[in-house]
Write a structure and sequence with these properties.
Elements: E1 5-7, H1 14-26, E2 31-34, H2 42-50, E3 57-64, H3 70-83, E4 88-93, H4 99-113, E5 119-122
Parallel strand pairs: 1-2, 2-3, 3-4, 4-5
Helix pairs in contact: 2-3
């Protein structure tokens, strides 16, 4: 059976993302991803979404590594994963103009590899 992932749309509100993630879960999607491109912090968003869902994996695609010190990044991921019951897929990146392309690559990597635990994906995207 193919694995399906959904990325939250653009400037969706937290309420809209909660409805989208629940619908994706009900429809059998494997994972639901959020980005930081719309100004929302990924881990707070994923923690909130974990309260609306039970099975679907929740991913950061991508959380920006230069906006947090490493300790805070690790603590945020561990907390989100605990609230999500081990369903966090962690995508990390440096952030560039091509962040959408990087997000798609990370989603495909995680979904195609079938990760079922906290996944640390460190990405470096070189855009010319």
């Amino acid at each position: 059976m193919p694995r399906l992932a959904l990325i939250a749309g653009g400037n969706a509100s937290l309420e809209d993302m909660a409805q989208q993630s629940k619908l994706a879960e009900d429809l059998g999607y494997d994972s639901f991803w959020v980005t930081e491109g719309d100004g929302k912090e990924a881990f707070a968003t994923l923690t909130a979404l974990a309260r609306y869902t039970k099975r679907i994996k929740l991913g950061s695609g991508v959380a920006l590594i230069y906006s947090r010190v490493p300790t805070l990044l690790a603590m945020s991921a561990v907390t989100a994963d605990e609230v999500a019951g081990g369903r966090l897929l962690l995508g990390l990146g440096v952030g560039r103009a091509s962040i959408t392309d990087l997000t798609i690559i990370l989603v495909n990597l995680c979904v195609n590899q079938g990760f079922n635990q906290v996944t640390l994906t460190v990405a470096s995207w070189m855009a010319e």
